[in-house]
Amino acid sequence: MLTDLLYTFAGFGLLVWGADRFSSGAGAIARLLGVRPVVIGLTVVAFATSAPEVMVSISAATDGLTGMAVGNALGSNIANVGLVLGGSVLLKPLVLNGSNTLRAEILLLIAISIGSALLFLDGSLDFFDGIALVAALAMFLYWVARKGKELPPNDPLAEEAMHELPPEMPRWRAVTTLLIGFVTLLLGAELLVTGAENLARAMGVSDLVIGLTIVAIGTSLPEFAVSVVSALRGESGIAIGNVVGSNVFNLLAVIGAAGLAGPGPVDATVLTVHYPIMLLFTLTLLRLAYNPFGKPGMGRGTGFLLLAGFVGYQILLLTGSL
């Protein structure tokens, strides 16, 4: 078991470092191609923080571990709201900066969360489900890119997105950084999936549970780092947008990649237990967008409830109560 733990933690470390390199390289290349900086901040950087989940999903699905791939996506969404956002709010309350784009993105995430559940009604994740999710991802990216181009320079979200841009670099260095990040992500995903699969067997739990717990928490580390730092800087838009954007990518890119790479059956509890729990956590984001009793946002009390709910969910999973 010690070797499996080493594989798992080494995988986590490589995924976090690789995601940072991948983000820097992709952002620099986008700049060289003339993409508007705010669009890079809203799309390329957001996608890069979800790169670990995508790589782990592909690796798990190709090994026949569809449960781990799906569990990683759903568990990461729960972790992003409960752990990442809850922990960020505990450090510093978040107030939405008035960006209509971010409000629309929250509503879109909720719609995608409800709509994508329909794909699991037949108890499986197949190739055509993957095609549908990837097509939806392409439409989402197009929508975000258009919104980014329409944002005025003084929009709070645009100003904060600019702070997340990777540094400029020569073409050769950008390509090299991107490739290094990509290879590191591949290696990290393979190590993590191998270690996590063996841990699941040793602990006597399913690959779905491991995906919802250990793997989900580990692959959410990049989002945690970005949101906490942004919250401490007072950049509420980035802290919130990072979570919202990552959750959209998890549902569309991560599960979509799993469907394309390794279609397979999905445990019935995904639709009856874990998906509803993920949706419940997702609905709490409405508190950030709309508040009839005051300014939209989250205080430390809400952050504590989110974090407590996340910890409680993890305990129930690992003790076999769910």
Key structural traits:
mainly alpha, 14 helices, two-stranded antiparallel ribbon, 4 strands, 322 residues, A middle domain of Talin 1
Compose a concise summary of this entry:
The chain is mostly helical. 80% of the residues lie in helices and 2% in strands.
CATH architecture: Up-down Bundle
Quote the average pLDDT. 81
- Gyration radius (Cα, Å) is 18 Å
Principal-axes geometry comes out as globular
Helical run tally? 14
For CATH, the homologous superfamily is named as: NCX, central ion-binding region
CATH class membership: Mainly Alpha
Tell me what you see in this structure.
By secondary structure, the chain is an all-alpha fold. It has one domain (2-318): NCX, central ion-binding region (A middle domain of Talin 1). Helix content is 80%, strand content 2%. It is built from 14 helices and four strands. It has helices at 2-32, 37-49, 51-62, 66-91, 100-117, 127-150, 156-163, 171-203, 207-219, 221-233, 236-261, 268-283, 286-289, 300-318; strands at 94-95, 124-125, 264-265, 297-298. The strands form two sheets. Strands 1-4 form a two-stranded antiparallel sheet. The protein has a two-stranded antiparallel sheet with strand order 2-3. The protein starts with a helix and ends with a helix. The mean pLDDT is 81.
Topology record:
Elements lengths: L1 H31 L4 H13 L1 H12 L3 H26 L2 E2 L4 H18 L6 E2 L1 H24 L5 H8 L7 H33 L3 H13 L1 H13 L2 H26 L2 E2 L2 H16 L2 H4 L7 E2 L1 H19 L4
Antiparallel strand pairs: 1-4, 2-3
